[in-house]
Amino acid sequence: MEQFDIVVVGGGPAGATFARIAGENRKILLLDQNGRPKPCGGLLSPDAQKALARFEITLPKEILVDPQIFAVKTIDLATWKERHYQRMYINLDREKFDLWLRSILPPGVEQVCGRCCSIRRQGGGFLVGYSAGGSLHTVFAKQLVGADGAGSVVRSQCFGPLKTRRYVAIQQWFLAKDVATRPFYSCIFDPETTDCCAWTIHKDEYLIYGGAFAPKSCRAQFERQKEKLRQYGFPFGEPVKTEACLVLRPKSPKSFCCGGDGVFLIGEAAGFISPSSLEGISSAINSAVALCESLGEPDPHRAYFQKTRSLRWKLLLKNIKCLGMYQPFFRSLVMASGITSIRLFGEGKAR
Ligand SMILES: Cc1cc2nc3c(=O)[nH]c(=O)nc-3n(C[C@H](O)[C@H](O)[C@H](O)COP(=O)(O)OP(=O)(O)OC[C@H]3O[C@@H](n4cnc5c(N)ncnc54)[C@H](O)[C@@H]3O)c2cc1C
């Protein structure tokens, strides 16, 4: 049976970053169930840009999509009010971004396309079982890193369920020419259908409409909100693709799990995602860096917990920002005040 210093389950931004920076001097297996692109808005926030810049990394233009975005149109469906705010995002093809992150790993990192299905402790390490190419395989890992996202198998098998808020994110892709709206990024609030948010983003010839909804009635509420948006001015036609996945929204220190006893969790598997914007790529990269820096310490679990303290606080404090964004009364006050918003040309004047 093949043995590794570390098996990393999940090759998204967290797992790929960790494998890239920890794989220079360790024998690492990166296991990812390739072929199922992660539903995502694919917007690289300033925090994520900064996290990449720490490695003097630049992005190849092949992973960018049209148009590039520097403002968001906020739409409140409760009041039919709109405001524009400056936001510096890079608009990406998320699938290509993940593939690119996995293409810049050190040659010593072994990459396998397979789905992790079992984890058992044995002899001071772990037997990690995965299915690939129709058969089951087992490898031995001295340490295990769970970077397998919101629905982490590593987390659920080793630590049980996380005490956090869970939503189902649903995204539909439309041909942009059928929707005929300006290619603008919008963030949508509609308390009747969700206490989280929704969005539209243009990606080359497509328009994505997506949102995060309570799991119980997610599809019905998604369709209900889509109908309201049609009335608002988004003439959605037939979708070319529908995708869905779990998304977490931390609200207390118990919403995070860094791991323990030889198993480390990074990225969304650890619960690291912004509860206000659902932005998670920066936390994925930053937690991967924190773990890599902790592995050489005498007590790596303690060190990792300490090094992610500021990240956990930062994410929890975003719940305060959520009040102004998600509480209908405060949101209407903030939007009515126009504070930090961009005044559109001709706004407020009779045309
Ligand atoms: C609809 C939506 C839109 C979003 N938009 C944005 C955005 O625009 N910008 C932003 O910064 N964040 C966004 N996020 C959040 C962001 O996508 C995540 O926080 C981020 O991808 C987390 O990175 P990760 O590496 O921890 O996990 P993931 O990106 O989820 O990667 C996990 C990887 O593990 C693999 N995997 C899972 N289970 C197994 C298994 N059992 N065996 C092997 N491999 C496995 C998956 O294939 C995947 O490649 C969005 C989230 C959603 C749901």
From TrEMBL:
Give the matching Gene3D superfamilies.
Answer: FAD/NAD(P)-binding domain (3.50.50.60)
Q: Which organism is it from?
A: uncultured Anaerotruncus sp
**PANTHER family from the entry?**
CONDITIONED MEDIUM FACTOR RECEPTOR 1, GERANYLGERANYL DIPHOSPHATE REDUCTASE
Q: What is this protein called?
A: Putative oxidoreductase
Q: Which InterPro entries does its entry note?
A: FAD/NAD-bd_sf, Geranylgeranyl_reductase
